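Predicting holo structure, hypoxanthine bound.
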Amino acid sequence: MNTLLFDKAAGCLPDECFSRPVDLGIMLGSGWSDALTMDEVYARISYSDIPNLGASTVKGHAGEFILYRYGNKRIAAWCGRRHFYEGVGWESVVLPVEILRRMGCQTLIVTNAAGGINPALRPGDFVIIRDHINTVGLNPLIGAHHPEWGERFPDMTEVYNKHLSELMHATANKLDLRAMDGVYAYTLGPCYETPAEILSYKAQGADVVGMSTVPEAVFAKACGFKIAGLSLVTNFAAGISRRELNHQEVVDAANEAKTKMKAFFEDFILRL
Ligand code: HPA
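Done. C-alpha cells:
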C-alpha cells in the first residue's frame, strides 16, 4: 500500500484529532450510521473532504467522520466504509483504521449488515463475530512490509477479542436482544452469493455472510488493535429462503433495527 495516501488524508484532519489519544474507534456499516449517541462533538468531516477516502457510493453509508465524546470516552467514528468492490484500492478500505492507529487508538468496533446463513438466524438478529473466513483470496497486507503495521506474518488466532465479545453478550442480555456468536464469511461482492456458494460457506462453518469488515479487521489485528465485531442480520442469505436478495431490503432491515443498534452502543460503550 502507498503510505503517502494515508499521510495526505491525515494531513487534512484538524489537529484536534491527534491532540489526545482516542479511546475507541468505530466503523459503521450499512444502515448503522444513526446508531451513535454523542455528548459532545469535537470534529465532523465529510468523506468527500478526506483525500484518498472519498464519498461512499453505497446507499446506507453516511460518509462522515465524527470525533466526539460519549460518557468519559473519546471516540472516533467512521460512518460508512469503502469496499474493494467499489473499485478503490485497499488504501481507501483500511484508511480509517490507519488514521485511528495514528490517533493512538487501540480498540475498534467494526459493524456490518450481513446475510444469515445459520438457520437459527432471522433478520433483526445480532451476531457477535467470533471469527471470520476470508473467501476472497486477497488481503490488504499484500505488498511491501511496513513494520509499523506489525509482523510480516501476523497471527490471526483471536482477531475478535474474547473479553469484548463477553461485554457485547452482557449488553445483548441486558437489553434482551437476540444475539449469538458467529463466524462471518467475507465475499468480494458486489453481487450477492449463489445458493451453492452459501451452502459451501455453511459447510465451512460460516453463520453470516457479507462484503466488508474482514480487510479492516485483518489490518487492525496486525497493527495490534483489540477488535469487537458486530453484524446485524438484514436478510436470509441466498437460498436460505426462496426470496431474491436486494440492497433495499438490507437498508430497510437496518432502519428497522436503528433503535436496537443505538441502545446496544450506549450500553456497550459504557462497559469498556
Ligand atoms: N450477502 C452479502 N452481503 C450482505 C448480505 C448478503 O446476504 N446482506 C447484507 N450484506
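The pocket of hypoxanthine is lined by residues 113-115, 187, 192-193, 209-211, 234-235, 237, 245, 250 (CB under 6 Å).
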